[in-house]
Amino acid sequence: MAVFQLVMLSICKMRVKTQALPKLFSFLIWLMPILSILLYALMLVTNLDMNAPIDKIICLILGIMFLIIGNYSTKMSFEDAQKYMHPAPRNEASFRKMSKLLAYGFIGIGIVLLALVFIV
After folding, report:
1. Distances in Å between the alpha carbon of 51 and those of 8, 47, 99?
2. 1, 77, 91 from 84: Cα distances, Å
3. Distances (CA, A) of 104 to 12, 88, 98, 119
4. What is the spatial distance between Cα 109 and Cα 94, in angstroms, rounded to a whole number?
5. Local structure of residue 21 (DSSP, 8 states)
6. Is the pTM of this model over 0.85?
7. Contact (CB, 8 A) for 103 and 117
8. Residue 89: left (phi > 0), alpha (psi -120 to 50), or beta?
9. Handedness of CA 21, 22, 28, 33 (dihedral sign)
10. Per residue in 67-97, is it b (16+ CB within 10 Å) or e — as a string?
C-alpha cells in the first residue's frame, strides 16, 4: 500500500507542476491512506475472530468511493483535461459528453454497491 501511495503521489505531482491540484487528484492522493487504515482495521477484526460482515463493509467502502469519484469527475474543466488527460480531448462538447457518461457510470455502480449492502 505504501508503494501504491508513492506511485499515486508521483503521478499526481508529475502531472501538476505549478498549478493547484484539481479536486479529483487531491481525492486520489488521500484515497490510499484512508483505504489502508480501513483495510488494516478490517484485517485486525477478522484475525481476532470477531464476526464482522466483511463483504458488506467492502461494498460500502467501494460504493462511497465510486460516488465520490463520479461526483468529482464532472468538476474538471476542459482546460484541465487538456493538460492532464492523455490523449487530450479534441473539443469541449465531446469532453463534456464523456465526463457526464463517466460520472453516470461511476454513480450508478456506487448506488448498486450501496444497495448490495442492504440487500445481501
Report:
1. 33, 10, 40
2. 24, 11, 15
3. 24, 21, 10, 22
4. 23
5. P
6. no
7. no
8. beta
9. positive
10. bbbbbbbeebeeeebeebeeeebeeeeebee
* Residue type for position 54: I
Helices (H), the chain: 2-15, 23-47, 54-72, 78-84, 92-119
What size, in residues, is the chain?
120
**113: pLDDT strictly greater than 80:** yes
- 17-48 pLDDT, tens digit each: 555 556 667 777 777 788 888 888 888 888 88
Summarize the confidence of residues 65-71 as an average pLDDT: 89
Rg (CA), the chain: 17
Task: Supply 88's cell numbers.
Answer: 487530450
Q: How far apart are the first and last CA of the chain?
A: 29
| Cβ atoms within 10 Å, residue 99 | 18
Q: Is the sign of the CA dihedral 56, 62, 66, 69 positive or negative? A: positive
